[in-house]
Structure prediction request, 383 residues.
Amino acid sequence: MEKAIINGTVYTPSEKIESGVVLISENKIQLVGHANDAKIPAQAEIFDAGGMFIAPGFVDVHMHGVMGHDCMGQGLVDVIQKIPAYGVTSFMATTLTLPREEVLATLEVMGKILSASPDGASCLGIHIEGPHLSPKRAGMATPTWMYPLSANDLMDFQKAASGYIRMITFAPEEGDAIKTIPALIANGVVPVIGHSDATFEQVQQAVKLGLNHATHTYNAMRGLQHREPGVVGAVMYFNQIYAELIADGVHVHPVAMEILLRVKSPDKVVLISDSAPLAGLPEGEYEWEHKPVHVRDGKCVLPDGTLAGAHELLDTGVRNLVNILGLPLEKALIPATRTAADSVGAKHKGRLEPGCDADIVILDHDIRPFATFAGGRLVYQRS
Ligand SMILES: [Zn+2]
Prediction:
């Protein structure tokens, strides 16, 4: 069955096409072009975008949950079904620091869900964020549950998760963790530096071994000092590093966001939400990772004021790049779509090009999701 999305401005996102058309055949994009040039088959089902924006569905490689549903466990089913409402069509189900046995038990549940994934956003795999972190850069995570990453641990975790682990955030300076980088890459897992107190030289060694991705740049990592550039300096210095950025307007100052985008370009900045399972919930007192968490003023915070993930999803980040930093939409979309997909090797995602997955979001003029297609199927439409 063919579908045609018509009457909108298409952002591929490399190109902007006024009065554009996107033709879908089964679950793939067949054609993208101007209305005058695109032949729409007579039997095609038509979706009129009503003059709105037609963009690739958002790709969030770092998110923990939404609306009370946690990616760690059965909540993953709800996450898959709910996030198309935020324009997200693919994501990495991200875990956090818990005691080792608890993480392993959770990974088993997640692996089972992913082997028969429900309809909704496509889960690209599991992103492990903890317990292989630096206690010095713990953020909200519990230091006593942390220990260095080892090759054995990689095998145990991957086995528990039925092989669905695709990213591991870890502190390479802890123990012999840096030595696991080649094994991670050989296993199809993206090594990601994060929650790290590494020096610039330590990151340099990790980059030589293949490191090319950093978890939420600026947050929970050694900062840039003029005599010790730290992790932040290394992320900016090494062109090959994809730099995740939380653009919720809370985690990172707008000027720091803009500096990163200028230094790295939108082709190397990966917009992430780092959404807590409490994202989207009204103000109140909740619990996450066995800790009390308050939702107030658009933030999720522990009693001591430490941020506990984000309250916003990726659509807010895109809006902030436009509304706070003043980027044109065609530029703001790139870190949330094409670059995010490229950073995890998902070249068939994050772009509207023939042969790619038909993951599409229709955004209104306030850049709020109006309708979302995942694999060519309409999975969300605003009522
Ligand atoms: Zn996180």
